[in-house]
User: Fold this.
Amino acid sequence: MNELILHHYNASPFSEKVRLVLGHKGLAWKSVTVPVILPKPDVMALTGGYRRTPFLQIGADIYCDTALMCRVIDRLAPEPPLYPASAGATQHVIAQWADSALFWSAIPYTMQPGGAQHIFAGASPEVMKAFAADRAAMMAGVLRPNAADAQAQVLTYFGWLEESLADGRAFLCGEAACIADFSAAQSVWYIRRAPPVAAVLEPFTRLARWYERMKAFGHGKPEPMTGADAIGVARAATAGMNLVFDAGQGHACGDGVTITPTDYAQDPVAGRLVGLSNDEVAIERDDERAGRVVVHFPRIGFQIRKQDSSK
Ligand SMILES: N[C@@H](CCC(=O)N[C@@H](CS)C(=O)NCC(=O)O)C(=O)O
Assistant:
């Protein structure tokens, strides 16, 4: 198996979700630290424009979005399963809710002045200003809850999680950890990083014990790698093994397309379509530094657009 290279940064909740999955699986992985804000030249060489964090690299294959990355990791290292049959379809529904609704309440809740001061402790005013401007541009046009809205939302949401654990189960969908647990854990992790606002978690004692179980999975065995070395790995590898193409979906293999997130950070990535199914879309692109790479995205949350089409 080609090595797993995770491009991430410490303070990223979605990265923490994947780090815990790698810990659950006991995997060794290479750790590339990416910038928190634009510009991200090494990231762009590999993804072709996708700026969100994290992403996973295996040789010259680049996997964007943690929903897809988690499926890829589980396929390569099936034990212990990340999608145990005992957790049924509910695990996917809870994971999607946690990655969107819960996350977008937990972040504004934590970033209220008391929490943000703690998260950015030691950062210069210039750094904080640059961060705010970067995220404002990334979220342009998206209305977010204010601190009071977010507090009401997280109290409701954590109440739901507490109730899910009320029968004494170890994890959200039963006795085995599943994708729902990892998606929910990232928001609890982030709020706990800001003690001045983390008191909101206090009423939820079962959730606190559940979080300790999640934290105990650790992060597996990371080893640092530079962005330049990761680009070198891509350049030396052959991309796009075992791609599936469903010709019944209105696209031809080789079509010039762009792939764009439909929620935020809507930066299109252009390439030739080489993989298409209900679960995944993959495009091939040639980069001056990284060579030929295949960039993979999930179908949920992304739009495929023919490059020459006006639609
Ligand atoms: N749906 C995406 C969301 C990823 C996401 O929003 N990540 C945040 C960091 S936790 C991000 O990209 N922030 C901007 C950045 O890092 O440039 C996923 O599951 O990977």
About this structure: The chain has a mean pLDDT of 96.
